[in-house]
Amino acid sequence: MALRAHPRGGPEQLVYEQAPVPVPGPGEALVAVHAAAITFAELTWEESWTSRDGRDRTPVIPSHEVSGTVAELGPDASGFAVGAEVYGLIDFDRDGAAAQYVTLPAAHLAARPTSVSHVAAASLPLAALTAWQALADYAALEPGEQVLVQGGAGGVGVYAVQLAAILGGNVTATGRARDREFVGGLGAKTYLARGEDGDRAGERIRVSLEHYRLWDESFRSRIVAVAGDLAAPRFGLDQAGYTRLAERIDLIFHNGARVNHIEPYARLRAANVSGTREVLRLATNGRIKPVHYISTANTVIPVALAPDFTGPEDTELSVAEVSDNGYVASKWVAEQLVRQAGERGVPVRIYRPGLVSGDPRSGVNSADDSFWNMIRAAAILGMAPDTGDAAMALAVEIFGLDAEVGSFSK
């Protein structure tokens, strides 16, 4: 079986169908595919549809980054044994890995690190090789040289920072302020965060509310935007700005977080855990301010889920029961900080919404929502994931607040 396109076009041309198992040629390996990654624009490239001598290759199979297991070796292929777990980049003028099997030169494969899953390994080759070519093949980076990586937390930037550091370079990286700790952990000695002022921050709020059809012009005089960074001490504000904020605020509604279900806990910790700690410090700076913390229903759902599981409001999971999903883990840790603050006298509330869906009347939704992107992908491809007997309840117009902790007093 394979995902193939017969006529030229975009993803709408892809069909899931029977396809012959390729035979490895001299120096090639046949790989049983465990995971594949597709470059978003590869179906627009001429080489995706033709051979090197210009002949039409249709039907074609996309996805040229692969991770899997060596199933067979062609004549004179060396470097791996049958059964070896490997990953690599397939030339774009060959069929890709959106299939059960794919062939490619054995020299284009590398052993999959045991600490990296097949899914993660399949997302690595193109971005990492891009960084390697720039630093090693073309720049010939020498130890002690100064390297500036623009966008150090980006798809290629994360590899450029690491490889430059491994090659002995002194790395300066740029990016969003919230990524400072993460990029520093990759090897950047200096990090330059791009700035934002209150006016631009206010404009972002307006644009977002207009997208969801919630903006009202009267908000201009009622919303005062403060440009800051959840991941930075004092939210990245100078002492005067922080003190002014602490004096003016009466109540804190902490709904800020870095939401990503792919990134590890280490990358989300600064914004979601350290950010919550900064919120609690603000709440106790000067007069005590009540804190409303928006968490997630997943913080009370154990990783080993019983068939008859129910999650009462007072459910408290142990560390061993918490999902290894980085986002869920970061919200669980943040909840512990909020609970501790409540025990020490700070008025707190914890709210645990489930999936927040779009408006059922207008259809307005977040374009970045992973669940709705999955639904969109299923509609485009005409296929859906096999979820067995799994079911998901979708709220309509409102969502429940699952947990309240602590008490307020005037």
Short description:
This protein has 410 residues and is α/β, with parallel strands linked by helices. It has helices spanning 118-122, 125-138, 157-166, 180-186, 198-211, 239-248, 265-283, 326-343, 370-381, and strands spanning 2-5, 14-17, 28-37, 65-73, 85-89, 101-105, 109-111, 146-149, 170-175, 190-193, 252-254, 291-294, 348-351.
How would you explain this protein's 3D organization?
The protein has 410 residues and is of the alpha/beta class. The chain has three domains: 2-123, Alpha-Beta Complex (Quinone Oxidoreductase, Chain A, domain 1), CATH 3.90.180.10; 127-193, NAD(P)-binding Rossmann-like Domain (Rossmann fold, 3-Layer(aba) Sandwich), CATH 3.40.50; 230-410, 3-Layer(aba) Sandwich (Rossmann fold), CATH 3.40.50. The chain is 27% helix and 16% strand. It is built from nine helices and 13 strands. It has a five-stranded antiparallel beta sheet with strand order 6-3-4-5-7. It has a three-stranded parallel beta sheet with strand order 8-9-10, covered by helices on one side. Strand 12 (291-294), helix 8 (326-343) and strand 13 (348-351) form a beta-alpha-beta unit. Helix 2 packs across helix 3 and helix 7 runs parallel beside helix 8. It is globular. It starts with a strand and ends in a 29-residue tail after the last helix. Mean pLDDT is 86; it is low at 395-410.
